[in-house]
Amino acid sequence: LQDNWNKFKRNYVAVVNGTIKSKKGDESLIPAKNFDEEILNLPSGGVAPMNVKNISVTSRDQSLKITWEDPEDTYDGDNTLLCTWKGTKVVYKTGGYPSGPNDGTVAIDNTSRNAYKTDALEINDLINDETYYISIFPYSDKGIYNTNEANRTIGMPTLIPNIVPFATATDEEISAMLNAHYKGAINIADHWHVGDTRKVHLNATVVDSNASKAHAAQDMMMVILGFNHDDLKDPIYGKNKSAVTINCREVLANNNSAEYEYYWGKSHYPVSDNENYSESPLRNYLNGSFLNSMPATFNSLVKEVKKNNLKYHTKADEAPIVTNDKCWLLSYPEVFGTSTYSNYLGGQNPGNYEGVQYDYFKTSNNRIKYLNKNGTKGSSDYYWLRSPSSYYASSYGYYWCYVDSSGAADNSYGYSTSSVAPAFCI
Fold first, then answer.
1. Non-local CB neighbours of 169 within 8 Å, separated by 6+ positions
2. Which residue from 19, 97, 142, 143 lies 20 to 30 Å from 181 (Cα-Cα)?
3. Do the Cβ atoms of 188 and 227 come closer than 8 Å?
């Protein structure tokens, strides 16, 4: 109703006895039936307030804290008052969203504008791990309620877990912190930091003839690239962003001996312009053999996220191909941001076709990776990216991007071998 009124309010300001009155005043009344009566025939009391803004819910033990910003009064383009905000009701229940101000438990009927903009409204005596559906209903001095779905949110009370460092937490403690983060009880970025590391033991993998030889069992230092960065395939407690993105700090190696037999993908030549990472055998390897080399408890924390992939080597004039991945190779813009490279899109601005730069790689030295010596750094090495290169050679077709041992962008043909440093989210 509000959206439709906003659309027409510059021309019409009132409904009188089923007709819309022109605000010019010199035109005849226009019958409401000439429009969609179900939508445009506004209540005689006027219009509802606009939506609330900046709804935020924080979970606590048996309680929820909610903040929001109440709407201002509504005026049309000629500064004619259309609606005076009178108050806001917050209503909650389990099982589904309240459809109106009387459908559920009223947490508050507040008539002081923005009283809960910074100081949270606390709802107590709730059940932990129960989902509560919350609707916020601003209303006018004429008693007209805004029931727009944009004024809805959810919350889940939960116990606050022990706050432990990324490096020393057990897998179970990490799981508890992640669970609290996704429920809104904590923001994990307040406790962990970009660049924090954790040693994880990787079991040996079997030979994968499509992508790789077996990698040896090894301890691998994992590093945090960023927080709330990647889009989850499926929302978790209403959150659409993964909590933490992690990357192998070093490349897979056999105790400082390079494991180069990681083929980007295509065993035939020449590679055509429309061959991309989405169909790469290496992608299958990372989401299969590599993922399963992690300890079971740590593996269970890994979240499936959406990754953008260029469809072509030479251009970005179509929407990226979106894949759902648990483990993946980094892309050129995820490492280098908006820096241009002559062999990535022919030197065009990378945009966000394949993601946005992680905070960790904004420090250029962090783009250098090293051979792994069971969790410590060996000599610097190079590693594949998932980005197609726009460079073309007659014998091989199009190339693929990688990061060289100095941390700079480079490229090579896809059946060349290089190291890998997989990334994933928890």
1. 177, 198
2. 97
3. yes
Any idea which residue has 């990334």 for tokens?
A: 423
State residue 279's pLDDT score. Answer: 86
pLDDT (0 to 100) of residue 265: 61
> What is the C-alpha to C-alpha distance for residues 197 and 246, in angstroms, rounded to an integer?
9
Token pair listed for 300: 């269970």
Query: What distance in Å separates the CA atoms of residue 425 and residue 246, rounded to the nearest whole number?
Result: 6
DSSP structural state of residue 7: H
Element (H, E) at 303: none
- CA 397 – CA 155 distance, rounded (Å): 53
CB-based contacts of 209, cutoff 8 Å, min separation 6? none
Whether residue 169 contacts residue 191, with contact meaning beta carbons closer than 8 Å, is answered with no
Q: pLDDT averaged over consecutive 10-residue blocks of the chain (426 residues)? A: 50 43 44 39 69 93 96 92 96 97 97 97 95 97 96 92 94 94 92 97 78 78 98 94 97 77 66 91 88 95 97 92 97 97 95 95 97 89 94 93 97 86 97
How far apart are alpha carbons 198 and 247 in whole angstroms? 10
Burial string for 395-413 (b: 16+ CB within 10 Å, else e) reads: ebbbbbbbbbbebebbbbb
Q: Which pLDDT belongs to residue 225?
A: 98
Predicted local distance difference test score (pLDDT) of residue 9: 47
Alpha-carbon distance of 354 to 333, in angstroms, equals 6
What own/partner pairs with CB < 8 Å and gap ≥ 24 does 99-104 have? 99/135, 99/147, 100/137, 100/145, 100/147, 101/137, 101/139, 101/145, 103/135, 104/133, 104/135
For CA atoms 391, 392, 395, 396, the dihedral sign is: positive
pLDDT value of position 33: 39
In 3D, which of 158, 154, 105 has the Cα closest to residue 134?
A: 154
Query: How open is the CA angle 295-301-307, to the nearest 5 degrees?
Result: 110
Distance in angstroms between the alpha carbons of the first and the last residue of the chain: 41
Strand (E) or helix (H) holding 235: strand 231-236
Other CB atoms closer than 10 Å to residue 166's CB: what's the count? 19
Residue by residue, DSSP assigns 16-29 as ETTEEEETTSSSPP
